[in-house]
């Protein structure tokens, strides 16, 4: 099988598995062509065979003949347990949707003359957002003549990026936006991973508390 044809077959299987087809693929006697390129149940390449032979091989294996690449010439069919295949594919789609969580863009503002205590508090907020899997838009607000000292804003943002590097990395380097300087930091872990990690930490903490009691 050529590389192009292999990719076509793979995309056909992927499309079926994600249930993105407008209608179900043709299976068994619904496949009305003279011959097909057949893929066996273990993924082995059987070659081009008549539709009757393909159906016979599927029946002998007590499986289904599924058209996975109808646009090929001849169409590509695979011998498989279609009911089980659809069930597992649906499970994967549901799991993917369950784990799909949108990343939120949080905003944290700094004054150029921020004191150490407030700075520490703001850094803590940034770390908290990144650890939760959210992006953070960091803004340095310039007041009056401070606009003539943009290098001070760059220094502050660079220091911040270094202090939160454990949880995030710079996605958008410092740039001037009106009276402000803006930098975007993205989380090292996506939201689903962050939630899973937090859940594991909570479970571990609960287990340790029970052992102490």
Q: Would you mind describing this structure in some detail?
A:
By secondary structure, the chain is α/β, with parallel strands linked by helices. The protein has two domains: 3-98, Translation initiation factor 3 (IF-3), N-terminal domain (Ubiquitin-like (UB roll)), CATH 3.10.20; 105-191, Translation Initiation Factor IF3 (2-Layer Sandwich). It contains six helices and eight strands; from the N terminus they run αββαββαβαβαββα. The strands form two sheets. The protein has a four-stranded mixed beta sheet with strand order 2-1-4-3. β1 (35-39) and β2 (45-50) form a beta hairpin. The protein is elongated and about 85 Å long. Mean pLDDT is 84; it is low at 5-22.
């Amino acid at each position: 099988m050529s590389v192009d044809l292999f990719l076509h077959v793979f995309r056909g299987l992927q499309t079926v598995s994600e249930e993105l087809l407008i209608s179900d693929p043709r299976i068994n006697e619904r496949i009305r062509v003279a011959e097909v390129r057949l893929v066996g149940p273990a993924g082995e390449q059987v070659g081009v065979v008549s539709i009757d032979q393909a159906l016979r091989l599927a029946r002998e294996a007590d499986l289904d003949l599924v058209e996975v690449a109808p646009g090929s010439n001849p169409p590509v069919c695979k011998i498989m347990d279609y009911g089980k295949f659809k069930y597992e594919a649906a499970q994967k789609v549901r799991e993917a949707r369950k784990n799909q969580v949108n990343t939120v863009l949080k905003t944290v503002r700094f004054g150029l003359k921020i004191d150490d205590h407030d700075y520490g508090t703001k850094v803590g907020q940034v770390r908290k957002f990144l650890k939760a899997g959210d992006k953070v838009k960091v803004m340095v607000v310039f007041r009056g003549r401070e606009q003539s000292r943009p290098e001070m804003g760059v220094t502050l943002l660079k220091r911040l990026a270094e202090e939160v590097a454990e949880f995030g990395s710079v996605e958008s380097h410092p740039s001037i936006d009106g009276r402000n300087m803006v930098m975007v930091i993205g989380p090292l872990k996506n939201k689903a991973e962050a939630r899973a990690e937090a859940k594991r930490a909570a479970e571990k903490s609960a287990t340790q508390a029970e052992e102490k009691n």
